[in-house]
Amino acid sequence: MSTIQGEPFIINIGPQHPSTHGVFRIKATVDGERVIDAEMVMGYLHRSMEKLAEERTYTQNIPFTDRTDYLSSMSNNLGYVLAVEKLAGIDVPDRGQAIRVIMAEFQRLASHCMAVGAFTNDTGAWQTPIMWCFREREKVLDLFEMTSGARLTCNYMRIGGVAFDLPKGFEEAARKTLAGFPQLIDELDAMLSGNEIFLARTKGVGVLTPEMATNASLTGPMLRGSGIAWDIRKADPYCGYEQYDFQIPIGYNGDSYDRFSVRLEEMRQSVKIIQQALDRLPGGPHSTQVPLALRPPKGEAYARVEGPRGELGYYLVSDEGPSPFRFHIRPPSFINLSALKEMTVGGTVADAIVVLGSIDIVVGEIDR
Amino acid sequence: MKQPFLVSDKWYDIRDLSNLSNEILHQVDRALPGEAAYILSPLLGFVFVFLLFVLPTQLYLGVLGERKIIGRMQSRYGPNRTGKFGVLQPIADAAKLLTKEALTPRYADKTIMYLAPVLFVMPAVMVWAVIPFGPEMIIADIPNSLVYYLAVSSVPTLVIFMGGWSHNNKYSLFGAIRIVAMGVSYEVPLVMALLGVVVMTGSLSLNGIVFWQDAFDIWLVALQPLAFAIFFICVSAELNRTPVDIAEAESELGSGYLTEYSGMKWGLFYGMDIAYALAASALGATIFFGGWSFFGLQDWVPSWLFFIGKLYAFYFLFIWTRGTLPRLRIDQLMAFCWKYLFPLALFNLFIVATERVIWTDGLDGEKGFVYIFAAANILATIVLVVTWARFLGYRPENQTTKPRLVNEAGGYVPVTPASGEGR
Amino acid sequence: MDGAGPTLAFWALSAVTLVAAGGVLVSRNLLHAVLFLILSFVGIAGFFLLLSAEFLAMAQVVIYVGAIAVLVLFAVLLTPAVGRDNGETRFIAPALLLSVALAAVFIFVIHDTTWNTVDEDPRATVESLGTALLGRWVLPFEIASVLLTAALVGAIMLVRSPEEEAEDGLA
Predict the structure, then answer these.
(1) Between A and B, how many residue pairs show a Cβ–Cβ distance under 8 A?
(2) Domains and CATH numbers, chain A
(3) Alpha-carbon distance A224 to A250, whole Å?
(4) CB distance B326–A195 less than 8 Å?
(5) In sequence order, what DSSP letters do the residues of B300-332 get, joined into one string?
(6) Dihedral, C105, C108, C110, C112 alpha carbons, nearest 10
(7) Is the CB of B399 inside 8 Å of chain A's CB atoms?
(8) A37 compared with C4, residue with greater pLDDT
(9) What pTM does this model have?
């Protein structure tokens, strides 16, 4: 008996599509509702950052890093300044380290708010969870505005420390903001984690086996969702993360739901870290003096941080000039995206959207 | 209908607005020659219903209420800039839509694309003809008004398909195909659920169903909770409301069949979507919540107030689900319809038919037994839903929703039966 | 049927139905043809209404407009050659011949039959319809349902993939 075969046709998901989170395109070949092939098209937001950075001094490059992953500028600043400090051999005072940790973790909270909210939006929860997440995220951005003067592109970290010391009343405001987060996470848990429709949409969708995840060199919640305990903050501590007590959440099957729940749990852990850091915030200077026209010795350095999306690495080569000879970013979104095809093919179009949402991409970082 | 105290059938008795409209009709008949009044009366009815009820309530309370309530659910204010508390927002929206350029894609089927929004409005107005606002306040009191409602409300599916297909856009086509598949499927359990109501009340007329509920002092939602649940889910599906709005599917298809519509053509679809939701709420309130009746109180207070109150209470249910639930996938939606709702609807019909036979043949239609049936049905529904969820459904409490926590970084942590779920 | 209203309605409905039926024949776009077909269904429903058969009219709309037309749309959409439109084929001559012959037979029959006309209003209520369907005409009714079930099973069998059949041990 012959089977009825649909005629495959191509739909372009993106570049202008509500669920691609920017200008990114999936060229999906579909048979009915089933995706049989997917091709990623990117580069719509390419700004040639790595090349431009070779023309500017080390300090001038810090604002560039804000604009790669515009949802987590603090983490990006941090990764870059760590690389420069490694290259030039600069030490950071304890207070500077602690402030960096606080800021990086707040950034993780803000970024995960966005990730979780956008993901639930992609599953079709009409705007409600994302608005709840935004409610808390705004408070974090208020804190950033208080310290650095900017909400999104903070440009706060400096080589050798941070730009300014914490303003008066920051600690109080930070604790107040933190108090809202467990409530938000519990709300999201109550609304989504036990929701049958949400479970049906996300469980078993976009499954990444541990082998697939490691072979594609995924990092961050993507990797942890597949059950691999890997976190740069534990494996290769920086900024004194070894002093703080926190745990790595890992998933079971590596499906979209696991990635979602890992992110929620990471938010809980971040709250824990920030509280510890605030409790034992050391005194002293927030930064060491570093010459503006920094000329690091000849050599190369690679520094990595655990950004909200995964391992965020900066590779710098110095030829003793005032600007880096080579400036390279290891963007977690870009590398996490490489598993998209494996995850979407075989599912439906609706699944592809959910999977893309669960990766949590930032197109500015993919295209740089 | 006997009205107590004071006036009864004078035109200024606002408890029954049909007196007023009759009065107007008589005056017009006296003033105009021949049958002109009878040609005029449908027009008058249209003006009264559409311009005085559907348009203000729908474009006002519908749009504004939905946006405000959803805003509150999402911990934001909702529109509050245009006028006091944003009350002028719907007008501002309409002005914006009217002045906006209505784009037409070059390869679109222009005739059908222009026709679809117009055809979409017609049924939205027509369904109101049979909705009873009071014992006498009904524009067309036809004996089969329930069937009329179902017939008219089956047209929008087709119109949406026309709209989606005509754009020559793949997303629209996806939306169109989805709505057709869903509309045809969900019509079946919907009709089955309503059939149970008809069997119990023995009436195909909406007004008759309300009279029955009034006479027995019970709302059908208590007598047939299962039918109500099925009705609500199916109507949400037919209306494209959020838990099942796969045809629009903003995040997947970028608004599906509406993708290429802009300006007032889009506005008509948007406004009429709310009109259909209100009409469906009106149907639900009439059938399951006693319509204009309120346990005898409708003789004293204007009955249409009860009806409109119930209508909006029902509409609030739609807004609520829209504000809270994620969307299902099309295959899950179809499976839910055919594997769960349809058997349940058949089962419901079976129970109701049995009860009806026992009631009329064995018990001579004794009034008190209705309450026993109601208690039995509520119990049966709870048992059915719980057992269904226990043995056949998805069991959220068995799913691990929290991730595992480890202290040290390392490699893969295998899932052991103790730590994880077996799936 | 007396008065100006029904007569006017009759002629208007006739015009709509006939024009729509003609549209089915002449429109080149298959989907337009289907939409014309639906319009003619609606026209027929109007005729039922004129004949005081409200229930039939509504059933006509529910079944033909709401369900069957939608299925026809589906069938047209799933036809592989839908993009080729309603082209001319070599069947056009025999088709014309056949339709002319059929029309001749119909006109002859309509013209030649002495139609029964009733003077009183034939109130076909839902109740009487139901009683008739489940009483006197129960056998045809049941046979029709069996036929539809058979068609349903056949349709499902047609679209099953070999893997599914292997699973059930049917192949």
Answers:
(1) 164
(2) 46-367 (1.10.645.10)
(3) 5
(4) yes
(5) TS-HHHHHHHHHHHHHHHHHHHHHH--PPPHHH
(6) -140
(7) yes
(8) A37
(9) 0.83
Q: CA angle B45-B50-B54, nearest 5°?
A: 135
Strands (E) located in A183-292: 248-250
Query: Identity (one letter) of the amino acid at B184?
Result: V
- Using CA coordinates, name the residue in chain C closest to A32: C78
* pLDDT in the model for residue A291: 77
Q: Which residues of C touch B165 (CB under 8 A)?
A: 31
H or E, element range at A158: strand A157-158
Position B397 scores a pLDDT of 56
Q: What is the pLDDT of residues B92-101, one digit of tens each?
A: 888 888 888 8
- Band (C121; pLDDT cuts 50, 70, 90): low
The structure tokens listed for A40 are: 């990623």
Q: Compute the distance between CA of residue A97 and CA of residue A285 in angstroms, rounded to an integer.
A: 10
- Please give the pLDDT value at position B259: 80
Q: Which residue of A has its CA nearest to C170?
A: A1
CATH number for the domain formed by residue range(s) C1-86: 1.20.120.1200
Instruction: Report the mean per-residue pLDDT for chain B.
Output: 78
Find chain B residues with C-beta within 8 A of A251's C-beta: 403-404
More confident residue, B243 or A287: A287
Q: What is the pLDDT of residue B417?
A: 56
pLDDT of residue A1: 33
Residue in chain B closest to A205 (alpha carbons) equals B329
Q: Do B329 and A231 touch (CB under 8 A)?
A: no
Instruction: State pLDDT tens for residues B164-188.
Output: 888 878 888 888 888 888 888 888 8
Q: What is the pLDDT confidence band of residue C168, given thresholds at 50, 70 and 90?
A: low
- Residue type for C149, please? T
Q: Compare CB distances from A229 to B325, B328, B413 and report the shortest one's residue.
A: B413
Inter-chain CB proximity A1 and C165 less than 8 Å:
yes
Structure tokens at B422: 């077996």
Tell me what pLDDT residue A19 has: 73
B126: amino acid identity, one letter = M
| Ranges of H-type helices in A67-161 | 73-88, 94-122, 128-148
Q: How far is CA B82 from the centre of its chain?
A: 29
Asked which of B328-332, B345-349, C123-127 is least confident by mean pLDDT, the reply is: C123-127
Peptide bond connecting A15 to the previous residue in cis, omega within 30 degrees of 0: yes
User: Minimal Cα distance from B150: which residue of C?
Assistant: C62
User: Which residue, among B154, B165, B195, would best test binding to C if mutated, counting the most C CBs under 10 Å from its CB?
Assistant: B154
Q: Which residues of chain A have pLDDT under 50?
A: 1-4
Other C-beta atoms closer than 10 Å to the C-beta of A66 total 22
Q: Cβ of B157 under 8 Å from any chain A Cβ?
A: no
**Tally of CB atoms within 10 A around B59:** 19
Both tokens of residue A190? Answer: 């109550």
Confidence of residue C88 (pLDDT cuts 50, 70, 90): low
Q: Is C158–A4 a contact, with Cβ atoms under 8 angstroms apart?
A: yes
pLDDT above 70 for B269: yes
Contact yes or no for B143/C125 (Cβ under 8 A): yes
Size of interface B-C (CB pairs under 8 A): 67
The per-residue pLDDT for B204 is: 83
For B155, the closest chain C residue by CA position comes to C66
Q: How far, in Å, CA of B274 to CA of B62, rounded?
A: 6
Look up residue B152 and give its two tokens.
């008219």
- Would you call A297 helix, strand, or coil by DSSP? coil
In degrees and rounded to multiples of 5, residue B229 shows phi and psi of -60, -45
CB contact under 8 A, C70 and B184: yes
pLDDT at residue C1 greater than cutoff 50: no
Candidates B250, B325, B331; nearest CB to A348? B331
- The encoded tokens of residue C105 equal 């037979």
Mean pLDDT of B246-254: 69
